[in-house]
Fold this sequence. Notes:
Chain A is of the alpha+beta class. Chain A has helices at residues 30-36, 82-86, 90-93, 116-125; strands spanning 9-10, 15-20, 23-28, 39-43, 50-51, 56-62, 66-70, 75-80, 102-106. In chain B, a hairpin with a 2-residue loop joins strand 18 and strand 19.
Amino acid sequence: xxxxxxxxxxxxxxxxxxxxxxxxxxxxxxxxxxxxxxxxxxxxxxxxxxxxxxxxxxxxxxxxxxxxxxxxxxxxxxxxxxxxxxxxxxxxxxxxxxxxxxxxxxxxxxxxxxxxxxxxxxxxxx
Amino acid sequence: xxxxxxxxxxxxxxxxxxxxxxxxxxxxxxxxxxxxxxxxxxxxxxxxxxxxxxxxxxxxxxxxxxxxxxxxxxxxxxxxxxxxxxxxxxxxxxxxxxxxxxxxxxxxxxxxxxxxxxxxxxxxxxxxxxxxxxxxxxxxxxxxxxxxxxxxxxxxxxxxxxxxxxxxxxxxxxxxxxxxxxxxxxxxxxxxxxxxxxxxxxxxxxxxxxxxxxxxxxxxxxxxxxxxxxxxxxxxxxxxxxxxxxxxxxxxxxxxxxxxxxxxxxxxxxxxxxxxxxxxxxxxxxxxxxxxxxxxxxxxxxxxxxxxxxxxxxxxxxxxxxxxxxxxxxxxxxxxxxxxxxxxxxxxxxxxxx
Lengths: 126, 354
C-alpha cells in the first residue's frame, strides 16, 4: 500500500478525504497515525452532527498524546465508523481503509485540499 | 552541553523514534508503546536509560554532604546496597527523587533524573562538597520482565547477578570493562539495571537483545511505572510538592538530619493538605495531566499522571486532591477530558497486582 494513495485528497493537518458517491469519507493519514503511535481511543461525532470545514470534528488519542481531527469539508455527519471506536488500533493498521473515521454529507465542495503529489511534497519537506 | 548515549546509532538502526529527555536524544518507542509494554510484562525488555544522572560522591566530607542533601540515611547504607531518596528544598519542596548506591566506605553513586542532574549536584554542593558528574562513564541498561533473569544469565553466565537481593548491586565484568549490575527497576517487574562502561555498552546492548530482550522506549517506561503507581518527577513530584503529599513517607529517614526536615516534620505533624489517589476509568478515553477529577459536580482533584493502561485496556490516572475531602476507594468519579466526562472509580494504586 502506498503511504499516500492518489485516489483522495489531503489536508495540512494530515486528514484525508475521499469522495464515495455523494458522501465524503474522512480519516487520518499513514503519516499521522505513525506520528501518534498506538491509537487507544477515537472520539467521533454522532450521525446528523453538523461539521464545518477546518473545525474539529473529533479526537484521536494515542499512548503519547491527543489530537483533534479537523473536518475537511462542511456538512452533516452521515455515519461514524463504529468499528474504529471499538477497535481503535484499526487506525494504525489500515488508516486509508478499515480505519476510516466518519462519512460526511457535504453541503459544499472539497476546497483547499491537496492532491497526493502536493501532500507527498508536504511530507518530504517536513 | 550536548550529551549522547553510546547506543544512539543502535537505536536508529532499530528504527527508534527519538525524543529529547534532559538534553539527550533517547528512544521514545521502537515498534509501539503497547507492544513494548506487553513485552516487559510478559517476557523481557531492555531500556536505554543512560540519560539518568551519575554523580559520584567521595570522601567522608562528601558522604556528610550527601547525607544532608537527601532523605535517606546514606551513611548507614551498606556497601553493595542501593536506596531511593528525595532531595528537598528548605521548604520541603522536592528537587528530585534519586537512587543512591553505596560503592565503598567513602564512596557513593547518586542517580538523579536527567533533567535534574545540575539541581541535585547543586543541592549536594550546598552542603559543602561538589560531586563529580560521570555522565559519560556508564550507559545504563534496564533489563526488566519475568524472563529477565534467564536473559541476563545467558549473557553474563555465573556473574551472580541473579542471586542479588532486591536493591543490591555488584561489580560486573562487562565484556572486559568494569561495570555494575543492580537489582533495581521502575516497571514493577523483576530485573536489573546494568551500568555498562561506554566502551562496551553497544556490544552489551546487542548481546542482551540477541538473548531475547526486546528494545523498549521511554514511552512504555512511563505506562509501566504508572500502572505500578510509581512517582515521576514533574508529575507527582515538583518543587511545589512535598514527599508526604506524594505518598513517599517511606523514603524518609526521620532519625537522620537533612535539608527540609524541619518543614517536613511540620507537614507530618499537621497532616498533608493534599494527597494522591488513583482513578481507573470505566469509560473509553485517556486522562491526561491537568484534567479535573469530579465527584458529581464537585471538583475533588487534578490529574498529575494519566495514560492508557495496556494491561487493563482502560485509562488510569494518579491525581492530587484535598486531604480533607479525599475520595475513597470504590467511589465513583469522573475525569473531565476536553469537555467530556470519563466515568471512573477510585482505586488504591498500584493499578495492577504483581
